[in-house]
Amino acid sequence: MSEQTIYTKTAKGVLEVKNRTIRLSRDLENVFGLIDGKSTVAEMLQKDDTLSFEEMTQALEKLTTDGFIK
Q1: Is 13 exposed, middle or buried (0-12, 13-18, 19+ CB in 10 A)?
Q2: How many CA atoms lie within 13 A of 55 on its CB side?
Q3: What is the pLDDT of residue 34?
Q4: Burial class (CB in 10 A: 0-12, 13-18, 19+), 65
């Protein structure tokens, strides 16, 4: 994954998080909240300085694998 990658939320992700049909960990929930379809990974890292690049990458990969973002 590049720091210039831009992610968007999927309909599944929006619905499941909104309806709380699935519980995300605090880190995953924070990363999911940062995704707006406009910000790059680098910009999201600047907004949330609590996660390292590696932690952000792992969270994004998990959210992608589970179908919450693309």
Answers
A1: buried
A2: 13
A3: 96
A4: exposed
